[in-house]
Amino acid sequence: MFLWRACKEALPTLANLRRRKVVEQSSCLICKLEPETSGHVLWGCIAAKDVWGQGVIKVQKLSFQSDLIFDIWSRMVERLSLEELEEVAATMRGIWTRRNNTLYGKYFKHPTALHQLAKAELVAYRETLTEEPVVNPTTHVGTQKWSKPEVGSFKVNWDAAVNQREGHIGIGVLIKDHQGFPIGSLQANKSFKGTPFDAEAYGILLAAVFCREMGITQCLLEGDSKQVVDLMNHQPKNWSLGGCLVEDARVVLNSFA
Question: Are 52 and 59 spatial neighbours (Cβ–Cβ below 8 Å)?
Answer without folding.
Answer: yes
